[in-house]
Amino acid sequence: MALPHHKFSATVLSLVLLLSLSPSETQSKLLTRCQLAKELLRHDFPRSYLSNWVCLVESESGRSTSKSMQLPNQSVSYGLFQINSKNWCRKGRRGGICNIKCEEFLNDEISDDSRCAMQIFNRHGFQAWPGWMAKCRGRTLPDVSRC
């Protein structure tokens, strides 16, 4: 049984709208360990701390650029580095210490994430990240020497 013309047109229009509302800038990636290590180096993370940064990202976001997590205090952590909305960014508008919209941390372009993560690190060190504290501090770190 064929769809009436108006239902078919509405279905096609809905599909076209859905596809057009999915811009490439909101694409997310699940990076491999070596892809992550190379990206971090490309964004000027020091090689001497590379294993710590890889461990941090693995423990915080599982290497996913699109992870967001609501916390009990009603703040939300965003992106690879799980940057928190309480102090570092603002939902829906530029703001926070990093002066950025939190949603900018959810795409696969990690320049802004990297800049903000380095600001956090420069103020508080790796201790600012609960995942690093729980899974990386004082533990064997990922081997990224062959990446």
From TrEMBL:
Gene3D superfamilies linked: 1.10.530.10
Protein family per UniProt: Belongs to the glycosyl hydrolase 22 family.
Native organism taxonomy: Eukaryota, Metazoa, Ecdysozoa, Arthropoda, Hexapoda
Record's protein name: lysozyme
Record bears the keyword Disulfide bond: yes
Gene Ontology biological process terms from the UniProt entry: defense response to bacterium; killing of cells of another organism
Keyword Manganese included in the entry's annotation: no
Residues of the signal peptide: 1-28
Record GO terms (molecular function): lysozyme activity
UniProt KW keywords: Antimicrobial, Bacteriolytic enzyme, Disulfide bond, Glycosidase, Hydrolase, Signal
PANTHER family with a match to the protein in the record: LYSOZYME C (PTHR11407)
Organism this protein belongs to: Drosophila rubida
